[in-house]
Amino acid sequence: MKIGYYFYFNNVISIFSKQHFKGWGRKNTGRFAQWCYKIFSGTLILKEDGFIRSLDLGINNSPPFSLVEDNIGIYYDVTVPSKLENILNTYDFNADKLLLKKAKEAIELIENYHISKYNNAPNVRDSFFKDDEKKRVLIIAQTAGDASLEYGLGNKFTTKQMIDEAMNENLNAS
Question: Distance between CA 168 and CA 172 in Å, rounded?
Answer without folding.
Answer: 9
